[in-house]
Design a protein that fits this description.
The protein is α/β, with parallel strands linked by helices. It folds into 2 domains: 6-197, 2-enoyl-CoA Hydratase, Chain A, domain 1; 201-248, Lyase 2-enoyl-coa Hydratase, Chain  A, domain 2. Helices cover 47% and strands 16% of the residues. The protein has 12 helices and 10 strands. It has helices at residues 30-45, 67-70, 75-82, 85-92, 107-115, 142-150, 152-161, 167-172, 185-197, 201-214, 219-232, 237-247; strands spanning 6-11, 14-19, 51-55, 60-62, 97-101, 104-106, 118-122, 126-128, 165-166, 178-180. The strands form 2 sheets. The protein has a 6-stranded mixed beta sheet with strand order 1-2-3-5-7-10, with helices on both faces. Helix 1 (30-45) links the parallel strand 2 (14-19) and strand 3 (51-55). Helix 1 (30-45) packs parallel to helix 4 (85-92), helix 6 (142-150) packs antiparallel against helix 7 and helix 10 packs antiparallel against helix 11. It is globular, with a radius of gyration of 19 Å. The protein binds acetoacetyl-coenzyme A. Acetoacetyl-coenzyme A (CAA) binds next to helix 2, strand 6 and helix 5.
């Protein structure tokens, strides 16, 4: 399906979604949000796609929600908008999703990156929640995700000052997985995605689910959940193939079942 504000492609079992509204620094307009949700849905349903990369361009991953569209909205409009689509899709996505971020990554754009499972940043990436500067607060997970990732004190500074942090600072705080030169950050993200896409799909799905659960469960319940997923994998063909390939000293051939 052709989109106007996102571009999609698939290579090496990696689905790439490029936000494509450069004239507005990839601000998340209603149209872009809807098309991003459709592209995500398509990739989540496509068996050929085993890992997803979301990116923008060198200048901007995304400068956040579209302030021009959002300005006149009422509370009830926003209630409907933010309980839908991309945020729910990402929260429930079973395939790993990587954000490849360069330049401005602010507001809803930053929340989009944080909603992904991993972030590969360019040296020019800047992460921030400037909502306070326009009389609002993050509305798509910013206060919750920053606090879980970097702790209360740093999250407070991010959301109360509205000032962004650099890619290097984000790396030091554990927000991003790696920082690469602007020329190579996207290929680095694609390489990481292809590496993950080449793993046994059912195990990759379980691994992701278990890590995500660790954010919500008590250690006791989390260990319990993990051990059940672990045991469940022993009913897959890929588990038998993995062990057999190890003994036979060859590369395993995964079937995804
Ligand atoms: N919404 C709508 N349009 C935006 C936008 C946004 N979030 N960010 C940038 N643009 C537009 C600008 O209006 C401008 O368009 P025109 O040429 O038609 O005027 C174009 O993109 C280029 O932007 P600038 O000229 O401002 O570029 P710059 O390099 O001087 O500044 C910037 C870059 C610092 C990112 C600045 O654009 C900026 O501060 N943007 C807003 C960032 C922001 O506040 N984001 C939070 C939005 S609220 C939110 O996201 C809520 C939520 O939690 C979901």
């Amino acid at each position: 399906m052709p989109y106007e504000t996102v571009i999609t492609s698939v290579e090496n079992n990696v689905g790439l979604i490029t936000l494509n509204r450069p004239q507005a620094l990839n601000a998340l307009s209603a149209k872009l949000s809807a098309e991003l949700a459709d592209a995500l849905t398509e990739f989540l349903q496509d068996a050929e796609v085993r890992c997803i990369v979301i990116t923008g361009n060198e200048k901007a991953f995304s400068a956040g929600a579209d302030i021009k569209e959002m300005g006149p909205r009422q509370s009830t409009d926003m209630l409907d908008r933010f309980t839908s689509s991309i945020w729910t899709l990402l929260r429930r996505a079973r395939k790993p999703v990587i954000a490849a971020v360069s330049g401005h990554c602010y507001g809803g754009g930053c929340e989009l990156a944080l909603a992904c499972d991993m972030i590969v940043a360019s040296e020019t990436a800047k992460f921030g929640q400037p909502e306070i500067n326009i009389g609002i607060i993050p509305g798509a997970g910013g206060t919750q995700r920053w606090t879980r990732i970097v702790g209360k004190a740093r999250a407070m500074e991010i959301v109360l000052t509205g000032k962004p942090i650099s890619a290097q600072q984000a790396m030091a705080w554990g927000v991003v997985n790696r920082v690469a030169p602007v020329e190579t950050y996207l290929s680095e993200a694609k390489r990481l995605a292809a590496e993950i896409a080449a793993q046994p799909p059912v195990a990759a799905r379980m691994a992701k689910e278990a890590v995500i659960k660790a954010e919500d469960l008590t250690l006791e319940n989390g260990l319990d959940f993990e051990s059940r997923l672990f045991a469940m994998l022993f009913s897959t063909e890929d588990q038998k193939e993995g062990a057999r390939a190890f003994v036979e000293k060859r590369k395993p051939i995964w079937k995804g079942r």
